[in-house]
Amino acid sequence: MNIHASNVKTDKQKSRIGLAIADGDIHPRPKSSTALFPYLATRWQEHLSTYGLIPRHGYQVGPAYPKGNPDASRRDAYPPGGGAPGSDLDFMRAQLLDSHNIELGILNAITPAPGNAQNPDLAAAMCRALNEWQVAEWTEPEPRLKASIVVPYEDGQAAAKEIEHWAGNPNFVQILLMSRTADPLGQRRYWPIYEAAVRNNLPIGIHAFGYGGYPVTGSGWPSYYIEEMSGHSQCCQALLASIILEGVFEHFPTLKVVLIEAGFAWLPALSWRLDNHIHKLKSELPHLKHTPSEYIKSNIWLTTQPMEEPSRRKHLSDTFDWIGWDRLIFATDYPHWDFDDPSEALPIRLDETKRKALFRENARHVYGV
Amino acid sequence: MFYDMKPIDCDVHPAVPGLDALLPYFDDHWRETLVQRGMHELNSISYPNNSPLTVRKDWRPAQGRAASSLEQFQAQLLDPFNTRTAILNCLYGVQLPFSEDMGAAYARAVNDWLKREWLDKDDRLRASIVVPMQSPELAVEEIERLAPDKRFVQVLVLVMGETPLGRRHHWPIYKAAERHGLPIGVHAGSSYRHPVTPVGWPTTSTEDYINQSIGFQSQLASLISEGVFKAHPKLKIVFLESGVSWLPSFLWRFTKYWRGLTMEIPWVDRPPDEIVRDHVRFSLQPFDGPTNIDDVERLFEHLGSDELILFSTDYPHWQFDGTDALPEGIPKAMLQKILIDNPKSTYSRLQETG
């Protein structure tokens, strides 16, 4: 949500939501570029120091499109003891978990993002390190937090191996992919990930961002960060269409997919578009036994941040109605600049059942916590 | 019957019957070259010839290409829909060749073919100027060449090309279009310089088509962010075969980011939804909205303006059956606007020529 700097709340202020809630998208981050070294073999420490991550874009350090704020973060999210926003558990407890009464926080470690690395072995080693770091430094000390297994998703087999390594570990409740992959996520190269997810009863969380190597538009590279940022919703529409049309949910009917931080209001339109065209083109897709909207209603969840903000509030509740109140999971995106405050982000009044579903029960259901 | 109003159909597709039909419209050099090289047809994979979507079943002739003759148009479209005016958007793939010169030669041939074989033969027809987007300079040349003929009412480009449409190197095209009172029609389709999806190449034609609406969303972001409308205050953009149900949520999201990121694009000095209301229009078919009447009414409420939508059949693409081009649930009061008033106020040249 957009907040003027003068209105930024301090951690002293009490949550006004009056309900212990779940937060579907929190970003923990290593304190420094070497903070993961204790979890990395010397060979990879040296590799990182010498060559860096080498992502699928041109800069050694930093994003392809400069962000709107330093570290894309709230200016008040820098821990007083130093380090990057999201890197200090105590400060996160105070500023986020305690002050907003969060009883279940889902960690999505996206910085660094080893899935973007061009070197697949480095990607696998860094994913393992990030996962060990999450357990040791976040979820074990803080039981309100649950982590997502970061995987080297461009290598389906290696990703499945990483999932199996952590299977059954109660610190993890989800598998994390980024939305901008090298191919659309419905394609076969990613199926070992879905197979492992279903086998271990873990939802797949797909977080916006990443670099798969292709432009963020079908017409080439845009000029501005705002285009990349708004374009993440297009990426999610494309990957969802791919997952549905390739028949992923026919093969893995129990697979749960949570789309994170790519907006949600676009879903009804995509769902209608898919349904309208699929019946004309079914000769190309004989493997689909259900309509796209049926798969969407049964296998897809979305987090709410960044909350779409129509000028007429009723339009937002129409949209929730279309998507279904059981499909949306509230998320803050702490500590990023477009943080959604649970007591202010939702501009419509909800009855108790819907409020509980959105702010807590849907997350509990999907993550089995 | 709505069609008593005599609609203006803003998106129909005449097909080039074959390269032979175009050859008379090339100069000697190109005619010889194309024959010598055994040039294939520029039929884009956006619309596979035999795909059910490309041609509605009852519009597919026993032999020859659908929608490739005036007689087919008259019998299947202009007469049954009681069409006042139909705007021809030829989708022959002039945007596909990598050579700028070849793209320009094809564009000239297609435009001259449209003039002689279509516009000269039926008063109800108008056309869009196809342009070689491979070169803004050659595209402007083609606009200048044809603009004096008032039966050309628009400049036609594809939604996906080499670079986003807002990029400044395209602006000479917009300047020329604005000067001549020609909207820029942006039609579904790609020159396939990049995968149609922002996450790589799809595997099916269905996926390609579904992703067209995603391409339109990105282009709208580009056109607004780069400041195209600030620099060209009279320019109109018409999204053709774009779908329209994605627009409200796109604008909610994009307007929110615009508020948060104005420092990046300070020249965008008013809300994106206002810019769209003043400058951007959408053809009706394919209407990719809900099927329930109550939901259609809600969607139109979300669109927030009765001036955005222009009637289209998208002939001969299969978007509806019979003559049911108007989805149920469109507010009755809006019909006159969609069928006639909005097209007329969008295409200023329709007012001049009737």
Describe what you observe in this structure.
The complex is a heterodimer of chains A (369) and B (354). Chain A is of the alpha/beta class. Helix content of chain A is 36%, strand content 11%. Chain A has helices at residues 42-51, 89-98, 120-139, 156-166, 191-199, 225-245, 248-251, 267-278, 292-299, 313-323, 352-367; strands at residues 21-26, 102-107, 145-150, 172-178, 204-207, 257-260, 300-303, 328-329. Mean pLDDT of chain A is 94; it is low at 1-13. Chain B has 354 residues and is of the alpha/beta class. Chain B is built from 14 helices and 8 strands. Chain B has helices spanning 19-22, 28-36, 70-78, 100-119, 136-146, 171-179, 205-210, 212-225, 228-231, 247-260, 272-279, 293-303, 335-346, 348-353; strands spanning 8-12, 85-88, 125-130, 152-160, 184-190, 237-240, 280-283, 309-310. In chain B, strands 1-2-3-4-5-6-7-8 form an 8-stranded parallel β-sheet. In chain B, strand 3 (125-130), helix 5 and strand 4 form a beta-alpha-beta unit. In chain B, 56% of the residues are buried. The mean pLDDT of chain B is 97. Classes of the chains: A alpha/beta (369), B alpha/beta (354). At the A-B interface, helix 6, helix 8 and helix 10 of A face helix 7, helix 8, helix 10 and helix 12 of B.
- How far do the termini of chain A sit from each other? 27 Å
The average pLDDT value of chain B, as a whole number, equals 97
Q: What does the overall shape of chain B look like?
A: globular
**What is the number of E strands of chain B?**
8
In helices, the fraction of residues of chain A equals 25-40%
Q: How many angstroms separate the termini of chain B?
A: 23 Å
Task: Note the beta-strand portion of chain A.
Answer: 5-15%
Biggest sheet statistics of chain A? 8 strands, parallel
Largest sheet of chain B: 8 strands, parallel
Side-by-side strand order of the widest sheet of chain A = 1-2-3-4-5-6-7-8
Q: Tell me the quaternary state.
A: heterodimer
| Helical percentage of chain B | 25-40%
